[in-house]
Amino acid sequence: MRPAVSIVMSCWLLTSVAAIADEAIDFRSEVVPILESYCVACHNESDAAGEVQLDVWDNFPAVVGDAPFIVPGDPAASQLLALMRGTTEPRMPPADQPQPSEADLEIIELWLAEGAKPPGAEPKTAEPMAPMFPKVDPVPGSEQRIDAIDFAAGKNQLALAKFGRVDIVDAGSEQLIAQIEGLPGKVNAVRFSHDEKYLLVASGITGVAGQVGLWDLQQAKFVNRWETPSDTIDAVDITRDNQTIAAGGYDRIVRIWNRDSDKPTKTVDGHNGPIYAVRFDPPGQVLATASGDETIKLWNVASGKRLDTLGQPLAEQYCVRFSPDGKQVIGAGADNRIRVWNLASHSEAKVSPLAIARFAHERPIVALAISPAGDLLCTAAEDGSIKVWERDECRLSHQFAALPTPATGLQFIDDGKTLLASTADGRLHRFPLPASEPEDKTNDSEPAAPAEAPKPGSEAEPEPLSETEPNDSPKQAQSIGWPSKTSGVIRLAADGYGESDFFKVHAAAGDVLQIEIAAAEQKSPLDSFIEVLDAKGEAIRRVQLQAVRDSYFTFRGKNSTQTGDFRLHNWQEMELNEYLYSSGEVVRLWLYPRGPDSGFEVYPGLGNRTTYFGTTATSHALGEPAYIVRPLPPSAEPLPNGLPVFTVFYENDDDPQRRAGSDSRLTFTAPSDGEYLIRVRDARRFGGDDYRYDLTVRRPNPSFDVSIVSKDLKIRPGVGGEFVVRAVRLDGFDGPIQIGIENLPAGFVASMPLSIQAGQIEAIGTITALATATTPPTDADPVTLFASAMIGDDEVRTPIGELGKLEIVADDSLMVHLMPVDLNAPITWDAAASDSQNESDTPNDNSSAVVRRDPYQPFELVIHPGETITARLLAQRDDFTGRIDFGKADSGRNLPHGVYVDNIGLNGLMIPAGQTEREFFITAAPWVPETERLFHLRAIVKGNPTTWPILLKVRH
């Protein structure tokens, strides 16, 4: 086998035709330049016109057309010479292209006549053949430029990549220890092996070729070197066992070598842009590559197969790393963001979910490092900024003074106590890491904890008061106590605009005041606006909202009431329960988009949308900026991340829960002991004698009110009917609400336990009829529901009301069953079923076998956060053959918040006409807490029958 030698590497060598008669033709120095000038442009590894490749000797064709391409010793029989002379068709190069001279053709002919000796025919020396790169001098003044660095902690040494060489220096004193010289072109990457015995070096000349070398640090020589045709190498890595090397560069190809091999063991061409970074996971099973095609790709090292394409980035990706435990992939690049993915598989193609996306810098991120302990990330951007982050949540921990020029490399040294950055001017910059605590760790994706509030009913009746004029300025503020209810009027001032009324209250630090305006119930035209000010009349900060991701509205805007179809740019990087800020309004994400033609739903998921931090709902235009924000204390000084920080003051226009219409409601927590001013005005600055209002100031009385949305169920034996309960949460109560049932007749089974989850407003239950069930007599005790919850230390129980009539309907035209995916047979629910029958194996071949099941022992499914599982939906049809729809975004009835029916498409979950079963997917968001909850499905045909519920267990 002839060794593969790149022709491009020889094209700069000069030859003398005058010496032809005296010496044998040398392929490298004489033939290669001719082929490079006239042939290789169209016949190379990337563009092999006519399936002819002439840039690597091993890839020369044996036959072109029907004639041998090269016949050693016989130029006349060689198709190569005939094509170049034009004595055979097609002439090469084509007639409209530059043609070889007669001297060039004579060299080709003599080389063929002399036997067409291949490159490397001479005896092989002990050292690998040195690459033949052209001599390129560095730009004057750039000799000391550092283009990359790596750190060997055990040796306390740094490798500095420079033009044509690598300097190995002491990390403390920066004294030179060793040099690797004579490298072709600019050195783009250096990488110490895990045991620090070797140094991997990547270099090359743009547009010419690249080289990867493995340098033995003890013996001070190359163990092996590999040449790559056509372009330089920008990134390299080596596995921990020192056996496998990977490299990538501008030619978009990933090459993998065994350390002792001459040729790549794997060549992967999967990117559409240059490769800027490569990195093995700790076991060496997965290779990650970051590219200019705006993706990071994951490859199985053994097979070379692609495991996943991480396509969320919005611009070129310059950096990629694995977490020290190998479970996460971390990337960054020109879209100014850090992203973290959870690695899903080492061997099979599988989607690795995005875990974190964080806007990090105002300019592209050009370098990234992980601390030795794995707890910190460091990023450097094109503007010279350097930031340190907590790795687990990408929380900003510290920002250093900007470098004068962008960093070319980042390393943690001194056991992670110091950050080292290199710059293109040849300098090393050291940054001792501070021991200060990072910013607030509140997880924006976690549901809010139930509010701590005083006991219900502990507040005295508000004292009735009347407004006393003048009270139109802070100095004239009317003193009122609380609880109180003050009647007032917003009159026109002398300037023709509505006045402001000021009231003074005293509060101790931590006191919570519920401040409300009632005007609409008096038929008043007032559109109230209330503010709480300090004693000087200055606004008081309520919260600071730091933007962590930027976005904008796509497809269409939103009015001020809608909860659904919030279509946002880059929505894939957003998570449920995160706060979304736009034009002064703050909402919270409630449900993911369910396909390409949908958007987020925001809280509460139905009805008018809820706003947060006292902000007021407003309309939003197409293209309007929006931000994912995280709340910070009003006195916090957040480190800048390139995105804005919004300050929200204690003020409100319209009730955040939208129950009071245009009337205002505000919850105020006193930051300190003192006097506070309440300002009341019209939001439009209108006024008049009929602009009446009542101002109530009281202590919050957290409570709830639950109602039945649907009742009077018509149920067929063997299936169920659905009822919905909905809660109104008052004064900050956000805890779970348990639902109970009383007087349920024999033969009926309710899906209990049933609860409205913390932070949610609805629960959906079923009443299912056994085969023995009959319609209850009219004089039977009514079926009633009640609700209970813990408020503070007290359990509060309140009646909900009657469920209405339960009527058995004799209709067996359609029955629907929900079951684990390993079952595939109709189910008969029978209280007499034994445990052995419950656990019996059941055919899954669509046979007519029937499963008998105790209705009080429902099937169970187990799901983990971030996981997708399958379940089976089965229909028993009689005379109904049409399509059976089960809904779209709401198809999973009573699923825990954050768990949803996935992959439903534009038509939703359904069983097509004429079919009897369907497997479907259930996905849990990564943050879902451990819980157990009964859920069911509802067919939206034939009286809306429901399945028997399944118990879903979320387990960590």
Kindly give the count of domains. Answer: 6
Helix content: under 10%
Number of strands: 66
User: What best-fitting shape do the alpha-carbon axes yield?
Assistant: globular
How is the largest sheet built, in terms of strand order?
39-38-37-40-36-41
Protein name: WD domain, G-beta repeat
Pfam family, one: PSCyt1
Keywords: Repeat, Signal, WD repeat
Describe the protein's architecture and organization.
- The protein has 956 residues and is mainly β.
- The chain folds into 6 domains: 8-113, no CATH class; 144-269, YVTN repeat-like/Quinoprotein amine dehydrogenase (Methylamine Dehydrogenase, Chain H); 463-540 and 661-698, Jelly Rolls, CATH 2.60.120.380; 541-649, no CATH class; 703-808, Immunoglobulins (Immunoglobulin-like, Sandwich); 814-954, Sandwich (Immunoglobulin-like), CATH 2.60.40.
- It has 4 helices and 66 strands.
- The strands form 18 sheets. It has a 6-stranded antiparallel beta sheet, with no helix packed on it. Strands 30-32-45-34-43 form a 5-stranded mixed beta sheet, with no helix packed on it.
- A hairpin with a 5-residue loop joins strand 7 and strand 8.
- The protein is globular, with a radius of gyration of 37 Å.
- The two termini are 56 Å apart.
